[in-house]
Specification:
The structure holds 2 protein chains of 2 kinds.
Chain A (H helix, E strand, L loop, with lengths): L11 H14 L3 E2 L14 H4 L8 E10 L15 E10 L5 H11 L9 E5 L2 E3 L4 E10 L2 E12 L2 E2 L5 E6 H9 L16 H19 L2 H20 L3 H20 L5 H25 L5
Helix pairs in contact in A: 6-7, 6-8, 7-8
Chain B lengths: L3 E10 L7 H18 L6 E7 L2 E10 L5 E9 L4 H11 L7 E3 L2 E8 L4 H15 L24 E8 L2 E2 L3 E2 L2 E4 L1 E3 L8 E3 L3 H10 L6 H18 L3 E2 L3 H8 L6 E6 L9 H12 L2 E4 L5 E9 L8 H26 L3 H6 L5 E3 L3 E2 H17 L38 H18 L6 H5 L6 H9 L4 H9 L14 H20 L13 H14 L6 H32 L4 H51 L4 H8 L7 H15 L2 H19 L21 H10 L12 H22 L3 H9 L2 H10 L7 H19 L10
Parallel strand pairs in B: 7-10
Antiparallel strand pairs in B: 1-3, 1-7, 2-3, 4-6, 5-6, 7-8, 9-10, 11-12, 13-15, 14-16, 15-16, 17-18
Helix pairs in contact in B: 1-3, 5-6, 7-8, 10-11, 10-15, 10-17, 11-14, 11-15, 13-14, 14-15, 15-16, 15-17, 15-18, 16-18, 17-18, 18-19, 19-20, 20-24, 21-25, 21-26, 22-26, 23-24, 23-25, 23-26
The chains are: A alpha+beta, B alpha+beta.
Amino acid sequence: MTDISAPRPLSFQAMILRLHQYWSERGCAILQPYDMEMGAGTFHPATTLRALGPDTWNAAYVQPCRRPTDGRYGENPNRLQHYYQYQVILKPSPPDLQELYLGSLAAIGVDTGLHDIRFVEDDWESPTLGAWGLGWEVWCDGMEVTQFTYFQQMGGFDMKPVAGELTYGLERLAMYIQNVDNVYDLAFNDAGVSYGDVFLENERQMSTWNFEVADTDALFDLFKKSAAECERSLVAKLPIPAYEQAIKASHTFNLLQARGVISVAERQAYIGRVRDLAKAACAAYMEKNGWAA
Amino acid sequence: MGGVSDFLLELRSEEIPARMQAKAREDLARLFAAELAKAGLTAAATVTYATPRRLALILRDLPDATQAVSEEVKGPRASAPPQALEGFLRKTGLTREQLTERDGVLYAITEKPGRATADVLAEAIPAVIRAFPWPKSMRWGDASLSTESLRWVRPLQGIIALFGEQVVPVTIAGVESGAATLGHRFHHPGAITIGSAADYVEKLRACHVIVDQDERAALIRDRATALAAEAGLVLVEDEGLVAENAGLTEWPVPLLGRFDADFLSVPPEVIQLTARVNQKYFVCRDGTGKLANAFVCTANIDAHDGGAKIVEGNRKVLAARLSDARFFYDTDLKVPLEEQAKKLDRIVFHEKLGTVADKVERVAKLARWLVEEGVVKPSPLRGEGLGEGQVSHRDRPLCETPTPHPDPLPGGEREQLAAQAERAARLAKADLVTGMVGEFPELQGLMGGYYAAAQGEDEAVTNAIRDHYKPVGQGDEVPTDPVTVAVSLADKLDTLVAFFVIDHAPTGSKDPYALRRAALSVSRLLLANGLRLELASAVVEAWGLVRDTITTRLHEEKFAEFSKASSGLPSEPRGRLMTHIFSSLQHRRSSSSDEEFATFGPRLRALLDFFADRLKVQQREAGVRHDLIDAVFALGGEDDLVRLLARVRALQSFVGTDDGANLLAGYKRAANILKKENFPVAPAQAGAHVSVDQAASPEEADMGSRLRGNDGGLSYTPEKDEAALIAALDAAEPAAAQAIEREDFEGAMAALASLRAPIDAFFDSVTVNDSDPEKRSTRLILLARVRAAVHKVADFSRIEG
């Protein structure tokens, strides 16, 4: 282990490595990002599907998140259409989950004798996943660094048992640890590569595509086809491919939102459609495993 | 036995939401009191505490044991048939030998010995925990494999249950009670053992936990105020923030920080809201009352560096938030409000009522109408409103001008006001599509005002845009600026009429469109500004506008249908299709109009009744005697709220006088006699101003012709006091009628007061129930005249006393 009191704060990648090591030592399977576009780490099947059912499941992974409407063409120091979440899922939720979490902060160099860590009520709900939970947003000196949730329902099913979910906002945490005001100034590694070197051009081009270029007819078509494919997969009793198509539909809907072609009235209908698909996939997953609701 | 001890309970959990802590303390005390009452126990005093991580209760001087009680159940008589006895034995589970006989009656007597209070508590603790009414609760951990597992606000981690110095043993969801707890999460994470209720507070204090929420609140309040003062500033007080921060900390440490003064170019309300809602910071003002570039955050630790890093971190978060806000503000400023307003046609107001742009159009027209009709007049609005339902005894005549629509204004001034009202209405909702209001919806109106001022709108228009949502709540100030009043009234009237037209009136506790509040706001605007508006005419005007929207939407649907159906058709069949669609539209429009007319009448009535009901509620809450309100409302037909309240006010003064009280007595006597005789009541119409000569029933007509003048038509010579009453009525009726016509209700009351002495004399010396049927019926008609005259002012039968 490197000395965490060393003058140089952790780089973005070192922070991720440190979290991997911390959660690996605590029995988590360290997974890799899911290879599909999604709006949050929770959408990864390792969380959504694995949260279902009675089996013990402890995993940690980084997930790139795509939020097309948050794109700012690389001009806003805090907002990105593509960013990373560090996701930990522990089922059943261990009795010392808060202490485990605080230990992970210490591992990446947050001194709780100098910084004000607070658990502020923030109940989590995902209308597109038919999921909700109670928990907090964790504040470090007034900044939200983590979403801490005890899942109560997923895909419309009561959790038996309840899983604990930690979602770290990696860029925010890194900006905090490195004392940097602009996300693009983050040290990505200790060899001179900045976050901007890696992602600035990506943000510019993707913002333009998300907001201005993406072919809306093709996207509407894709939405329909993903939904149809989800349903075909459900008929074939294949919940995992069905769930993938639900994720695809969800992201396509987010792109359509960014293009501004979905009216306020239609919005609810689209969200409802994605929720129905995701819930059906969860139900099929439960059934395939022989778990009762 | 016979002693008393204190009971301490601490339920330690992961962080309890700040907003739930106060109610949780109340619930804990209440539920425990109820459990103990079942065992006949009462504590001398109850204290409750809440911190983010613990909910605690201390019951003082609880007896160590409950009283022994003897319960007696009465049974049948000893001589009763065997079936009755058998039934009683079954019910009580006793044998005949166990019953006690007293005075020939059998009793079942059960002796209940006293119980150790510790045992009662051991049962009460799990009962209270399981019944606890958290607004939201959750399951957790291994036990949550079953959905029946314990629910708590967040995972429950420890229980202290000490009666005196003894642990009350309970186990709930795997948590065993004991005497140990934890101190502050970071300052003292280890276990602490509590001896008894007596040392609980101080032991925790030694471990950096201030258990008493009021003490934490006081500390935050005082320290934040002092920090601001040390910096030469004044803290903007905010008790909500004090309580919230007290609910987020066990060891509160307020810290003052500064943000970049450049951010002060953002409106102060935005800064304050960002700081308060997102970050729970206090803000400060400088000596001149202007917002300063300082904030006070409340940390939960005494940091090694005195809080320097904490302040710096919080400053950065606030800076990021403020730079977002400034970005929205600067971006919004670049777009004229007219341009923003165009985007309102993308926002659906209600699926049957069109878009917000449609609503804006209606409100603009209605605001103009309110000015053109002389309801809202150029400033200053006379500050002679009725003062929010306060019935004052120091009254002035309601209205110096007797005609409803006087026109003392030069046309130009009125047109200018109308144009301002229309302009303000057209821009009033434009801020709904701005970035800032998108981020902070509670800034609606206010931001519109800033943007309007920035683009050089005149002050009246700017103020109207800013304030047109007012008055919002009970305590909210009522606008008086005429442009604001016109827009605010029009906005609320439109909302009310629109939702009543589509039959979405509030039912029971359901009022999703806040129509009750809108109606109350309309009343307050009218009354506070003394505005003379016949509500029915405004409602009809608003309805016309709403109907236009509905039919326009029908047209649009048809157009869409047409273009869809005809796309790709050659022009000739396209033309034919168009003709076909439009003839069907014409048909549909006329038939739907008929239907609308048929349903509109009752809905208009319902809306006017709705206004009356809200006004009644408001007046009652303002302390006006409900029977006086009822007496005036019972007249019906009055839709001018200012006039209506003027009547109530005059009536209230009048019944307080001797004349009033005596007239009321005379009226009641007359009315009772008429009631006994089943003499029909002539309907009174307050709004219609029925004059004495316009008789409303055959009896009245008869009465009019027979009693007009001293000798007119009477077949006998009236007695002296009878003639005097006739003369008094002949004088009082026109006087009262004229006063009412002038809206001088004091005058009307005074005219009625002149009847008092003649009525008293009439009852003293004249026999109504005379054996001569002619005299009898004439005198009954005379009493009916008295009743009718009084009813011109109010239905005195509703007045108590």
